[in-house]
Every structure is written in C-alpha cells, then in structure tokens.
Target: Glycylpeptide N-tetradecanoyltransferase
Amino acid sequence: MTNNTKEEENQGPTPQGNIPPENENENEVSIDSLARKVQESLSLANRHKFWETQPVGQFKDLADTSLSEGPIEAPTPLSEVKQEPYNLPAQYEWITCDMDSEEMCLEVYNLLTHNYVEDDENMFRFNYSKEFLGWALRPPGYYRSWHIGVRAKSSKKLVAFITGIPARIRVHDSIVNMAEVNFLCVHKKLRSKRLAPVMIKEVTRRVHLENIWQAAYTAGVILPTPITTCQYWHRSLNPKKLIDVGFSRLGARMTMSRTIKLYKLPDQTATRGFRKMEPHDVPAVTRLLRNYLRQFAVAPDFDENDVEHWLLPKEGVVDSYLVESPETHEVTDFCSFYTLPSSILGSQNHSTLKAAYSYYNVSTKTPLVQLINDALIMAKRKDFDVFNALDVMHNESFLKELKFGPGDGKLHYYLYNYRVRHVLRPSELGLVLL
Ligand code: MYA
Model:
C-alpha cells in the first residue's frame, strides 16, 4: 500500500527552495532509532504475537551482523504445502476474486472505498478506482488464486480482502521471484479479531503453492522489521482546495493569494522533445529503466512485458512521459505518476482529493528537477490537486527545490522470508509499490 499522509503541520515548503537541510541525515533510519524500537519490543513481551512466528527479520536480530543476506527459511517440498485453506470463524468463507468480472471488481472497490487506509486523523481515505484495481492486480503472469476475499456466509457480503501479484525483485545481486502483497483490508466492524493473520497465512499458502517463497510489502505501521522507512512529500497544485479540506495549512505569514502564487506553474513544459510515452517506446524505456534501476540495492527486474503493463499510459490510472532527442531520436529521460484519489471524509465542499503519485523517473540528459517540474505541469493540466513523492531513488534531489513539503506519516518497506545485510537508506531503494 501507499500510506495515506497529508502535509505535516507548520512545515510548508520553503518559498525559496534550495535551502539545505539542517541535518543532512534527517531521513536516514539510524541504528539508534532502530535500537530504541528493539528495546520497546523487548520490554513489551509478545508485542507481535503473529509476526514473531513468521520468517521475517526480528527486532532482536537487528544488530547481529553474523546473519547472512538471503532467505531466512529454505523452501519446503511442494507436497508438504498445506492443501486446504486455513480455518475461518464459522460465519465466514473464502472466495477467490475474479477481477475480470465487473461485479467482483465493484464489490472489492466498495469494500476498499469504505474500509481501506486512512491518514492518522481519519480525514482522508484512499479511493483506488476500479480501473486502477484491475491494472494493479493483473500484471503479466498474475495468479487469480492470489486475489483472496472473505465473505459472510449469510449475507454474502465481502468483508475482507488481500492480494498478491508476482514480481521479480533484485536484492543486491540476486533476482528473487516474489509476491507483492497489497490491499489487505478487514471491514471496520470486524477489526481486532485476529482476522488479518489468517488472511496473511492464507495468501502465504497460495503463494507457496506456486513455488514462490518470498514477498515484498509496505505498511504505515511498524512491524518486524523494515528494510527501509520512507517519507511522503507533497507538492500542492491546487493549494486553495488543499487548505480548505485540511490537507495543508496556510503557512505562517502567508496569505491565500501569496500561497496560490507560490505554487503557480507554467502552462507549458520546458523540455524540448518531452512527450507522452507510446507503445513503440516500450523497448527504449525498458532499456533506460533497467540501466537506471541497477544502482539501487532493491529494485524490480522489469522486462518489456512489465514496462508495457506498468508504464504505458492508461487513462486515469498511470501517466508516463519521456524525452526524445529531436536530433537523434534517442529516448534520454522518463517520468511517470499514478492516479490515486482519496475520499475527503469531513468536508462540506469537496468529496475527492485528486492525487498523483510519483512512480518511476529516469534522467540522463534532462536535469531531474526540470523533468519533474514538467511532470508537475502535466499533473496540474490534468487537474490533480496534489503531487506526492516518496524520498526513494534520487527524489530527494528535487523535493525541496520543487516546493514539496514533508508528509505526516511514514511508509515502511518489508521483505518476507528474506534478510538484507543492513537497513537501507530510502535513496538506496528503487521500488515503488502501489
Ligand atoms: S498495508 C495496508 C493495510 N490495510 C489497512 O491499513 C486498511 C485499514 N485497516 C485494516 O483493514 C485492518 O486494520 C488490517 C489489520 C487488515 C490492516 N500489515 O486482524 P487483527 C498485524 C501486516 O486483529 P485488524 C498492506 O496491504 C498486527 O501487527 N500486518 O488486526 C500490505 C497484528 O499482528 P501482531 C498487520 O486491525 C499487507 C495483527 O495484524 C498490518 O483487525 C502486507 C492484528 O490482526 C499490516 N498493515 O486488521 C501483509 N496491520 O500481533 C503481510 C496489522 O503480530 C504480507 N497487522 O503484531 C506478508 C507476506 C505474505 C506472503 C508471503 C509469500 C511467501
């Protein structure tokens, strides 16, 4: 998931941009802060009754440098994987969700729209569109059996959901077949009944049945143990609405009209040869992206089919642009963002916040700041209210300069059954999950 965050209080972006951070390491996950987490977890025995039983890095092992990188547990023979689903409380039953079906898609959409991730103050809730869900859950080689629902037997109502999709993810030099697990959701009325661990065990079982033993996932909560912790940054495109609905606040000594002026963008993009990505660009974009992602400790291993699926523009779902040199016709730069609105829970005037999320960007010739500024211009033209970006990859190099402000929540990245040598800085991460 993508965590739902809004602009942090009193920390609007600096009008001048370019101001160096007071502490260069402010976004690093320090050993000290993790050690503190270890202490907390040890002092509260059984803090993670479920997660302590799982093959994931445990807090107590964080300082142990003798543990090697790689799988925590070896695969078991397929014949030993449990053949029947886990037990649910008697009133509920498992279903496999057919995301090709309009009705099923709508049921999932309705569950998530009313019960999925909210920000800390419950002002906004993710509102993934049906089209987005269809895209996110059906990449090349997807397994229908990994789209798992729970229904109430009597009413037939969908009350819980969890999904996996297959992905090849490189961790340092190893390419690992993984499941990306996302959209874990339990209906609000069924919370805190330990249904989530059953959902997670069931998706694990179905992933194992396909002979896959590792997974990647993100969450807004701290679990044992993050491979990195990232922060969201927000760039206002429609500051008046963002302030009206409580997403951001008017900065100190700022008026509404000064704020609107501060965030104003040109109508036209600046980069010569900047255009929308088209189907014939897939091979060039794949080359550009593969070459770029090599430098990160953890990143997807995209082939042309993946790029076609994940990065070819899809109306209202994903937007991608590239720079083609007018002289050589070489594709030198690339940027993309996906569309994820949030429902606004308490406003009289507005029901939806239209948010774009920075996805994969590559700059080789166009300075990244200029490339992303062009992406902001396109997002503004498409009527987005805000443009969000994590501090992953090289994003830190444009955030302050382009007037992004820090968000109020963190996003933790995890691997299941795979230990990494040490905790990563966000800038060492080349993976964006939806
Ligand atoms: S992250 C998005 C998660 N969804 C939401 O935040 C939506 C709103 N919230 C809810 O629907 C519920 O609160 C959920 C928990 C369903 C989140 N990831 O049933 P419970 C642990 C992992 O009583 P509920 C996303 O989708 C919690 O620490 N574990 O709690 C990625 C505790 O365990 P322990 C979580 O609140 C999901 C236990 O669940 C999360 O009713 C990746 C409590 O269960 C969380 N986000 O339901 C899943 N939240 O006692 C892991 C709570 O040990 C995939 N918990 O602390 C792992 C890989 C599997 C595949 C492996 C293949 C090899």
Q: What stands out?
A: Residues 10-29 have pLDDT under 50 and may be disordered. The longest helix spans residues 102-115.
